[in-house]
Specification:
By secondary structure, the protein is α+β, with helices and mostly antiparallel strands. The chain has eight helices and six strands, in the order H-H-E-H-H-H-E-E-E-H-E-H-E-H. It has a single domain, classed as 3-Layer(aba) Sandwich (NADH Oxidase). Helix content is 39%, strand content 16%. The longest helix is centred in the middle third of the chain and has 22 residues.
Length: 223
């Protein structure tokens, strides 16, 4: 096991007072405009942009720094087509057989259904896998710690990075998602947790009329 060898903190910039408040307000204005869209343009996105956004996601903190994520980035039309066919099969089962009525009622205001055409239209599908364990040279399993929480943070950074560069996103979670591991050739110690659809929004894209909760509804301050 590698010994703990701390190194000097670099890259940290101290900011105070009005500068911090201005940057916090500017960042909030940026991320508050992020919306989930379901109408994408087929307009190409440079691969280098996606690469940097994935690298940004990879800066997320993780349990014991084991970084239990893998991002399978799909742009090949034939593979996107296969993902759409398999996902729509699962979604049809969900909407017509598996989903409780309460869940379907909660989804009504969002206008979702089993049609997932955006899985082919958008230039990129980023399939996020969670690695549940590693295997060392002796064949023994190495446990992952807080893998779910770590991957969740990484996805949040990925969505924010994509929004920051001017791309629209959608988080898609067909259930079950086992088909993604076999379709994309990922190992048995990984499981797919989400498809992040990324690209430019369609010219006349529309989104549900929703509101975010106010600060008082999502936070408590103890001073």
């Amino acid at each position: 096991m590698a010994k703990y060898r701390p190194v000097p903190l670099t890259g940290y910039v101290t900011r105070e007072g009005a500068v911090m408040q201005r940057r916090a307000a500017n960042f909030y204005r940026l991320v508050s405009r992020r919306r989930t869209v379901r109408s994408f343009s087929a307009r190409a996105v440079p691969r280098a942009v996606i690469e940097k956004c994935v690298l940004s996601a990879g800066t997320a903190p993780s349990g014991a720094n084991l970084q239990p994520w893998h991002f399978a980035v799909v742009s090949a039309p034939a593979v996107k087509r296969r993902i759409r066919i398999a996902a729509e099969k699962e979604e049809h089962e969900f909407y017509h057989r598996r989903a409780p009525q309460a869940w379907l009622k909660a989804l009504e205001p969002l206008g979702t259904d089993a049609n997932k055409s955006y899985l082919e239209t958008a230039p990129y599908l980023i399939v996020v896998f969670q690695r549940n364990y590693d295997v060392d040279a002796a064949g023994d399993r190495i446990m992952q710690y807080y893998a779910t929480e770590s991957v969740g943070i990484a996805v949040g950074l990925l969505l924010t990075a994509l929004h920051h560069v001017g791309l629209a996103t959608l988080t898609h979670t067909p259930n079950p998602m086992g088909f993604l591991r076999s379709l994309l050739g990922r190992p048995a110690n990984e499981r797919a947790v989400m498809i992040v659809v990324a690209g430019y929004p369609a010219k006349h894209a529309k989104v549900p009329d929703i509101r975010r909760k106010e600060l008082a509804d999502i936070a408590s301050f103890f001073e």
